[in-house]
Design a protein that fits this description.
Keywords: Signal. By secondary structure, this protein is of the alpha+beta class. The protein has six helices and ten strands, in the order ααααααββββββββββ.
Length: 330
């Protein structure tokens, strides 16, 4: 009986050893027996790879597919100026209701601009479609009409982008560029927007408006004297005429912290009270605060109408600078 027991023990030992050898042969070196590492190790993580998001579909409503074109650049244009400056200023600020208040009823470009301004603000698909159709009927303005040309180019680029990316929400930002080249083109001693040549007193003190396309003006040079500039709006800049040693004309230039702007203007001084647009004066240099002559207007406010026989008509609202109204802005 002891012999049979010994044989069974030997057989069990051999069987256990065979099983151990088989297990070791099926596992790669260094891997514990029973490990599942095998054919799946050739593609690690194949079954559990993270799915990365793909490109956004252009047809996905509200998706920001790409940065849209920029909005209108700086004019410079003044909100208190006549057309097209006033319209451009409000359009650049996306003041769509303000545009409606200034409807000239004659400009196809203005009509398209008003509709597309509303489209940008409301994101209404109907406004985009109508505005695109209105803009398609407009011819591109010439280079001399810098504000109208910038308006046309900006709106055309936005419509093209919206057509390529339907449903995309567009909120364009204004670039730090200019629609019109900076330049001093004239002066107004009447405070208007059209150049006039009315002389001022040699005693100085008259408020004079700079005309042209101006922004960030810091210094006005009158002859050899530098005087500060008062920028009341984007393209509305005044200065106070300094005293002059004698009647005559002097050159006026302007500049900012970086240097002088192109262009110049001429300011005329006089000692004749009957000619000066800013009130009585004399060759001895009457102070601008001196009592006024009752026969002459004493108010130096820019809205005071001068005698029509000696001064230009201040009622004209013609555009100034490099822009004209030929594109139908008013």
């Amino acid at each position: 009986m002891s012999t049979n027991f010994g044989r069974r023990a030997c057989l069990l030992t051999v069987a256990a050893g065979a099983a151990l050898l088989a297990a070791c042969a099926g596992s790669p070196a260094g891997a514990p027996a029973g490990s599942t590492t095998g054919s799946s190790s050739a593609d690690p993580g194949a079954d559990s790879a993270e799915q990365l998001p793909g490109p956004i579909s252009p047809d996905d409503p509200g998706a920001d597919v790409a940065a849209p074109p920029s909005w209108l650049p700086i004019g410079p244009a003044g909100p208190a100026d006549p057309a097209p400056d006033m319209w451009y200023s409000r359009l650049q600020n996306k003041d769509c209701p303000g545009l409606a208040d200034l409807n000239p009823d004659t400009s196809q470009l203005w009509t398209a601009a008003f509709t597309l301004c509303a489209a940008v603000v409301s994101q209404d698909a109907g406004d985009w479609q109508v505005g695109a159709e209105q803009l398609a009927a407009v011819s591109r303005p010439g280079p001399s009409d810098c504000l109208e040309r910038a308006t046309y180019d900006t709106l055309t680029a936005l419509v093209a982008f919206r057509t390529t990316h339907p449903g995309t929400r567009i909120n364009p930002a204004s670039p730090q560029t200019l629609a019109c080249a900076l330049e001093l083109t004239g002066l107004s001693t009447l405070g208007g927007t059209q150049t006039d040549t009315g002389p001022v007193c040699t005693s100085g003190g008259a408020s004079i408006r700079l005309l042209g396309r101006l922004v960030s003006v810091t210094t006005v040079t009158v002859g050899a004297r530098s005087v500060p500039a008062e920028q009341q709006a984007e393209n509305t800049v005044f200065f106070v005429a300094p005293p002059a040693d004698a009647p005559g004309t002097v050159s006026v230039t302007v500049g900012d912290a970086a240097g002088r702007f192109p262009g110049s203007a001429t300011l005329q001084y006089t000692s004749d009270s009957g000619l000066a647009v800013d009130g009585p004066c004399s060759s001895s240099g009457t102070s601008p605060d001196a009592p006024s002559n009752p026969d002459q207007p004493s108010d130096t406010n820019m809205n005071t109408d001068p005698p029509s026989s000696t001064n230009p008509d201040p009622s004209s609202d013609a555009p100034v600078g490099t822009s004209t109204s030929s594109a139908g802005w008013g």
